Amino acid sequence: MRLAARPVGDVKPEDWQHCSETVEDPGPGQFAGRTLAISLDPAMRGWLDDRPSYLPPVGIGDVMRAGTIIEVTASNHPGFQPGDHVTGVFGVQEHVVSDGKGALKVDTSLAPASTYLGALGMPGMTAYFGLLDVGALKDGETVVVSGAAGAVGTIAGQIAKARGCRVVGIAGGPEKCAMLTGELGFDAAIDYRAEDVRKALREHAPDGIDVYFDNVGGDILDAALTRLAMHARVVICGAISQYNNTTPPAGPSNYLSLLVRRARMEGFVVFDYAQRYAQAAQEISELIGAGRIKVKEHVVKGSVDDFPETLQMLFRGENVGKLVLELV
Ligand code: NDP
């Protein structure tokens, strides 16, 4: 799946080109693989824009960048054998040839392939380092997570619960909110589509918010800023409500509450923590094993042709937990 044009606003079907091309045999030091599962990430929208960011944009005509899990089918690389399952940024394509750079073997007898793209992959790492390093979370604090029913949000909220925090999730729709407070054990959930978020935060975080983990930006960030506790930390993880804007993102008009509450707001990029992924994956897998993190995944079965439509599900809130396209 190649990028055909730079999208303006929502990504449209004509922004993509599905090409059928022959994959070369692996050369010396390379392996070939068959894609099993493709990760769908809100960040993909940002990678399509030609503006300075933490990664260069996907070029027009390039295979779309994506984290995937592949099965090695042939190898001239000493580190990878046929049959190995490997994760890496191999892109939206059915077959890949790789020199192994950035590739990591995963054990799919311990967890399904999709989990290495979710709780044990980039979203899990994002939740862990965003909450614990950037948010400097302390046991027993009050934590509010937006985008709470998604890949990052479900893990962030459950890590905070495991540390004895009061956790309030913000998500779209009654089903997602019921899942957060029922299955995942959040203390409260706010349906931002139906409720006045500012008023609901007053009710559910009566002593103020110590850590606000923001996945969505916009009006919800602005509402959370009005409820900060003293020395609160606002973690800027993402701003999905702004990614399809054709004008610059709206800034938070309530930012002076950072001054009043002696609080701080800090953004981060998960890739900066790569050296410590193993530590985070170990801790998250222990919490999963102990039943303290429930893994939520939304697996769409299909082909590379289904990538454009599956990506749009993120922006319509149609996924619960980690959205993955499994190639069948
Ligand atoms: P999710 O699984 O949370 O999927 C996206 C969700 O966003 C949707 O399900 C929807 O849920 C919500 N959403 C969509 N549009 C809006 C809107 N206009 N307002 C409010 N909510 C909306 O995605 P991820 O967990 O993968 O990513 C969450 C955030 O984390 C993103 O902002 C992403 O960019 C960021 N991120 C940042 C990283 C970093 O290094 N800083 C790394 C990885 C992710 P609902 O139904 O509740 O609206």
Automatic annotation (TrEMBL):
<dbReference type="InterPro" id="IPR013149">
    <property type="entry name" value="ADH-like_C"/>
</dbReference>
<dbReference type="InterPro" id="IPR011032">
    <property type="entry name" value="GroES-like_sf"/>
</dbReference>
<feature type="domain" description="Enoyl reductase (ER)">
    <location>
        <begin position="9"/>
        <end position="325"/>
    </location>
</feature>
<dbReference type="Pfam" id="PF16884">
    <property type="entry name" value="ADH_N_2"/>
</dbReference>
<dbReference type="InterPro" id="IPR020843">
    <property type="entry name" value="ER"/>
</dbReference>
<dbReference type="InterPro" id="IPR045010">
    <property type="entry name" value="MDR_fam"/>
</dbReference>
<dbReference type="GO" id="GO:0016628">
    <property type="term" value="F:oxidoreductase activity, acting on the CH-CH group of donors, NAD or NADP as acceptor"/>
</dbReference>
<keyword id="KW-0560">Oxidoreductase</keyword>
<protein>
    <submittedName>
        <fullName>NADP-dependent oxidoreductase</fullName>
    </submittedName>
</protein>
<dbReference type="Pfam" id="PF00107">
    <property type="entry name" value="ADH_zinc_N"/>
</dbReference>
<dbReference type="InterPro" id="IPR036291">
    <property type="entry name" value="NAD(P)-bd_dom_sf"/>
</dbReference>
<dbReference type="InterPro" id="IPR041694">
    <property type="entry name" value="ADH_N_2"/>
</dbReference>
